[in-house]
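Hello,

Our lab assistant flagged a job as stuck in the queue for most of the afternoon. It eventually completed. Since we weren't sure the result was trustworthy after the delay, we are filing this so someone can double-check. Below is the sequence as submitted and the structure that was eventually returned. Let us know if re-running is recommended.
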Amino acid sequence: MVKLVVFVPEYVNLDDIDKCLCDRLTEFIQVDSNTFEAETELRECNRFIVLERNRFLVYKQEADGPVAFHYQSRNLVMLPMRYSQIATIHYNGRLKLQQKDGLWFRDELPVLYFVFKSDADCLKLNNATEDNTIVEYYETEDEEEFSKFASIAKSKRACVPHFFVVNRGNVYHVVDTNDTSINYSFSHSLKYKIISDLAMGTATIQTFIDEEKHLHERRPKTQRLLNFQLRDYLGNPVPENETFSLEIINECRENKVGSDSDADNGSDKEDGMDYMSYFDYHSDENPHICGSNNYPYGFGFKLVDGITYLTYESKYLCASDDDGYKIEVAPTIPPKNLRIQVHYAEDGSIMLTMWGGNVYANCDWVKCGYGGIGFDSSEYILRWGSPMKLRLRKIQK
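-- returned structure --
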């Protein structure tokens, strides 16, 4: 792993400078300011940092002198320096820095992390959540005291004032600096949204506490309905021999232009619609159901022993056997653990789940013309993902 070199003159006390995650991969070298010559060092090292009392300087070869930065953005600046020569575009482009009084800095204050030292490697460098941070380490479980951490946070010169993060392995806590009884723990998979929203002020810790209390309402466990009957989006029963399309409802588009413009017959293709489609173009990938915006594919259903199975060309739609990540087709009735269950939302649209569960199918538009459809059971999707809603439309013959 490449280490960044930082030169520390004798008049700079490292204990007075907030620590960064990048420091774990940094070589700090004490130097005598009377004999240190940056130009001489540049012949041996193409980029390095020199610390000063109220700023730090970035040196690189083929540059017109050093560039000065504010300490509150030190981790942000050091990250790209480990891999390449930092160019001017980084100052006001990717790093979103601005210049004031001769110093480059990001206007957003860094988030303070308290990290269990033996688990520090769990925090990956070049992770957007940890880019704009400062850090304090603790070494024993007895030291994990939120009130003590709050006092340290209040003493910092430049960090987000209203909360801090406590990290041990893949478990995180966000803690209110002014009232440590308000805190919330979560896993690694949720950290980007939670920490980012708190830092930007778009949510509070209480927001996430309340969200968790109501998760069961957002994705209730589904119940099988007796005498279930498939209906089109106008409420008309669909006979077993009927061919229909499954339109993927785009709520953003419909909020702009309205919906059901062809509500007189529940059929016909409209420009701009997205549909469930059958994808079999790649020989190295199993055929599967996806989202597309080209034309409506014809689906049907079969009723077997009182159970409604969606079909495509007389084959049964089912969850793939690799944790249900995709929807595939099978020539025979799928086993119960791979069955797909059809549900109706309050607005009459259709939603799909794996049999008897609360993992709803969702559509991830990875390209403008292709949407990956599957049953994603990740914690993030279960909490904030939007289930795919479908509108069943008859296909005119």
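-- support follow-up --
The delay was a queue issue, not a problem with the job. The result is valid. Residues 4-105 form a domain with the Rossmann fold fold (CATH 3.40.50). Residues 259-268 have pLDDT under 50 and may be disordered.
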